[in-house]
Structure prediction request, 414 residues.
Amino acid sequence: MSDSRNRGNERFYSPPAVRRHQRNLTMQREQREQRERELMIMRQQQQQQYLQQQQQYLHQQQQQQLQQTTMMRMQFDEEQRQKRLIHQQRAQLREQQVAARRETQVQSAPAEADDSRSEVAESTLSGNSSTIQTNIDRLVETVTPRVPARYLPQPRRNGQEVPEANMVRVYYLNDLWESFREWSAYGAGVELTLSRKDKVTQYYVPSLSIIQLYVDPANARKPGIDSISQRMSRISMASSPSTGESSQSSRKLIFEYQEHELPHQRQPLFDKISALATGFADLKKYRSCDLLPSSWMSVAWYPIYRIPTGPSLKNLEASFLTFHHLSTPPTSVKSIIVGASGSSKMALPVFGLASYKLSSPILPLQDSEQRLAESLFESARDWIERHHVYHPDFNFFLRNGRCPESNPGQSKKA
Prediction:
């Protein structure tokens, strides 16, 4: 047997070249495994680096958002503080003006009629009629919006012009929202008598609670461009709601809004209307004659501050809802309210009222006030039931004290 097959009693002898080849293969395999291990370690390091960078980025974003939120909160608090300061300064100025007027009138009055004339002066300074005596009367009178009256041209009858005394007056919704601008910024001041002796001015800020606008689908066009005949037919229909709305098909709901936010999170009415008008511009363009008698709105009034603010006077928590019709029937110019500047105004009286904590030990209601409050509440409830309206604020007031506390039985019954 040759040496290549049997050398040194080694049955399978490998030549040196074969051994070198095997060593090279082993070294290559080990190097390949080493590179794979290094690549794996590198990938793991890259992943860890990427995760760290992502965490740092998220942390930076959170810090920036926190700083922005803090700055926005500080700006909001500063704006609120400035608004409160403006409210207080304006209220103090009003109180000083009222005190100055009262002192001037008292000094100019004869000595034998000081008492009677001081009462007349107080009524005059409050901006109300001398017939308004109770808190409810002053409240309802104060929060009644007054808007500029506009006149519609009427067609001729038998070739003759319609007398001026029979002209039809309407208003634009934009003028109505403008009437709430100052109240939304500073509040509406209501003079109240506490404990039947202390006189204060409580300021209320209005917010939109609910609004529904209905039009006749047969005459529904762009607001403000209807023909005279269509205007007159619509107005004549508004004057007889029993026939104009006998069927659901004779009316079309073109806009509706219900507020569901908590009172302290709501925008004032003027600001809310401006926001809603961005999505429904006609909210400011419609006229009262474009709307059917079923068009209405409810305004929520919440207290903000009071004058005077002495420590001996307890806080007033009374808040209330007012209900207002938005359409207008034909009315002659003889019933127009003429202001001091000669401009005519239209009043949108309160036809319904719901209250929360209106009656209390420091704000007792007289018998006449209780009857008036109950009558206005029943009118509001009848309206809601007749039109099948879901009114969140009204339901809350109904559950939590819409009636005077002195009449709990009737409240439970409701």
